[in-house]
């Protein structure tokens, strides 16, 4: 087997700091993460915890709403998949906002944002993150949402 790669006229020189990215500020807020795919939930939970957030995680909307932690925690951010069995992300967001009126919402989905909007899931002040995403992109988006004024 042969592998052919394009030739370069000169060696590639990287600019100093070209790959360096600004650090993401850590947080200490409580995040309710609801994602039905266990692998996505685990990676997302780990990424949030690495940045200092307290994470309450569940695999479905009904399971999240039954969690005892919600009775003694104030949730500042709900991160939820748009499409889930039993209860959609939009339905879950409505219920969470009844309990925590100042809670922000970040919807995530493998579908694009336009599809989520067409299905009536996203509200005016909600944010959206398309899957797949990196832990760094997630951390930046979460910080951006939590830092903006209501």
What does the model show?
The protein is of the alpha/beta class. It has one domain (30-147): Rossmann fold (3-Layer(aba) Sandwich), CATH 3.40.50. It has 5 helices and 5 strands. The protein has helices at residues 38-50, 61-65, 89-99, 113-118, 135-147, and strands at 30-34, 54-58, 77-81, 104-109, 127-130. A 5-stranded parallel sheet has the order 2-1-3-4-5, with helices on both faces. α3 links the parallel β3 (77-81) and β4. It starts with 29 loop residues before the first strand and ends with a helix. The mean pLDDT is 84.
Strand-helix topology:
Blueprint: E1 30-34, H1 38-50, E2 54-58, H2 61-65, E3 77-81, H3 89-99, E4 104-109, H4 113-118, E5 127-130, H5 135-147
Parallel strand pairs: 1-2, 1-3, 3-4, 4-5
Helix pairs in contact: 1-5
Brief overview, please?
It contains 5 helices and 5 strands. It has 150 residues and is of the alpha/beta class. Helix 1 (38-50) packs across helix 5.
């Amino acid at each position: 087997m042969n592998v052919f790669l394009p030739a370069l006229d000169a060696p590639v020189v990287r600019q100093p700091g070209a790959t360096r990215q600004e650090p993401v500020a850590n947080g200490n807020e409580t995040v309710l993460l609801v994602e039905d795919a266990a692998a996505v939930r685990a990676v997302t939970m780990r990424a949030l915890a690495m940045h200092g957030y307290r994470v309450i995680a569940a695999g479905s909307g009904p399971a999240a709403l039954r969690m005892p932690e919600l009775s003694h925690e104030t949730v500042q951010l709900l991160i939820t998949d748009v499409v889930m069995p039993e209860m959609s992300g939009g339905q879950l967001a409505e219920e969470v906002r009844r309990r925590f009126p100042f809670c922000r919402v970040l919807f995530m989905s493998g579908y694009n944002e336009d599809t989520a909007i067409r299905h009536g899931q996203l509200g005016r002040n909600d944010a959206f993150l398309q899957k797949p995403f990196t832990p760094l992109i997630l951390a930046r988006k979460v910080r951006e949402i939590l830092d903006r004024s209501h």
